[in-house]
Amino acid sequence: MDRRSFIAAGTVALAGTAAGSAAASSEKAAEGPPTFGIAGVGLPVIADGRLRNYVFVSLRLMLGAGKTADQMRLKEAFFRDALVKAAHRTPFTVPGDWTRLDERRMSAALVAAANTISGRGSVTGVEIIAQSPRRRSGMPTAH
């Protein structure tokens, strides 16, 4: 087999694999409600009136009827701003643990802010995908 036919055969095989995985991912997306991801929002951990740490949060917004990820992408900066302001106003700190934040309070604050930012019912829920603390050592953690 010469080099050209070997490369052509590899390209055809890769294209078939990519098409199959793209079809599988579009089927998954069609099953559930539309979502929009926001990654890397740094939120403060405040304990005893002092800034103790930052936790970087990645989250997924579950979109309401009639909303698309493209519509929400235009408002991503507003969602980030609202979440940071809410975290400073009423910290989402878990008592005794400076490495994570309270997911329920964070979700509730973002859904409430979404009503103002993009309209009532535009965000039906929030899923916290990851929490990564800036500092992990030398801090109290809940047992």
Tally of distinct domains? 2
Assembly state: single chain
Strand count, sense and barrel status of the largest sheet are: 3 strands, antiparallel
Mean pLDDT: 81
As a percent range, the share of helical residues equals 40-55%
| Unreliable segments of 5+ consecutive residues | 11-15, 21-26
* Main CATH class of the largest domain: Alpha Beta
Draw up the topology in text.
Layout: H1 3-31, E1 35-47, E2 50-63, H2 69-73, H3 76-89, E3 93-94, E4 97-101, H4 103-117, E5 123-133
Antiparallel strand pairs: 1-2, 2-5, 3-4
Helix pairs in contact: 3-4
Protein name: Tat pathway signal protein
Signal peptide: 1-24
Keywords: Signal
Describe the fold and architecture.
This protein has 143 residues and is of the alpha+beta class. It folds into two domains: 1-31; 34-133, Tetrahydropterin Synthase, Chain A (2-Layer Sandwich), CATH 3.30.479. It is 44% helix and 31% strand. The protein has four helices and five strands, in the order αββααββαβ. The chain has helices spanning 3-31, 69-73, 76-89, 103-117; strands at residues 35-47, 50-63, 93-94, 97-101, 123-133. The chain has a three-stranded antiparallel sheet with strand order 1-2-5. Strands 3-4 form a two-stranded antiparallel sheet. Helix 3 packs across helix 4 (103-117). Residues 1-24 form the signal peptide. This is Tat pathway signal protein. It comes from Brevundimonas aurantiaca. Keywords: Signal.
